[in-house]
Amino acid sequence: MSTPHNSANPGDIAKTVIMSGDPLRAKFMAEHFLENPKQFNGVRNMLGYTGTYHGKPVSVMGHGMGIPSVAIYSYELYHFYDVEQIIRVGTAGCLHKGMDIGDLVVAQGSCTDSNYLQQYHLPGTYAPIADYGLLSRAVDECRAMGIRYDVGNVLSSDIFYVENQDWRKWAAMGVLAVEMESAALYANAAACGRKALTILTISDSLVEAKSASAEERQLAFTNMMKVAFSLV
What we know:
Layout: E1 16-20, H1 23-33, E2 35-41, E3 48-53, E4 56-62, H2 67-80, E5 85-94, E6 104-112, H3 132-145, E7 149-156, H4 167-172, E8 177-179, H5 182-191, E9 195-205, H6 214-220, H7 223-230
Parallel strand pairs: 1-4, 1-5, 5-9, 6-7, 7-8
Antiparallel strand pairs: 2-3, 3-4, 5-8, 6-9
Helix pairs in contact: 2-5
């Protein structure tokens, strides 16, 4: 059964989905990592493909920018397509000196300035976290591949162009980097008893004059993809 945002039929999507904000990054992963990829979605140009990786079924799909977008797509994958785990690969701005462009961040947890978590009516502050099994395996793979990485908390922010945000306050609490989606992904996974993990590549620094090009963001940040596919 298709949804307003996904034209896939039951069985078209694998139990593991690797997602990226940019649908062209999903297309890149399909072309460079999947065996015999078949497109299952093109609604709103949010591309999705299913194939195999070393013989194991896996899907890749875009999720768009920001919490509302990733929340819709991940919710539908978990609830309507019986997906068991989603691994998000994306980019982030680091909040600490010494982190370089291309370094990975394995997001153990995700703070947020979004209102998304209010829908659960919890009597306190919920802390969205990754699935530990996926996280532990991702760390092992980073070590085995010799990839520079950090593990810790990230901030999922609703705001890209910020008027009055002091990132130093988040950095002082140990937050490693800023992105825009993981809190909703982790909350959706928790709410339906499924698994999720975000693996980020540092594309910018908010404390030093460092930034990757748009082409690098789309095509060159392959280490996070290698780690993600190793978890299939």
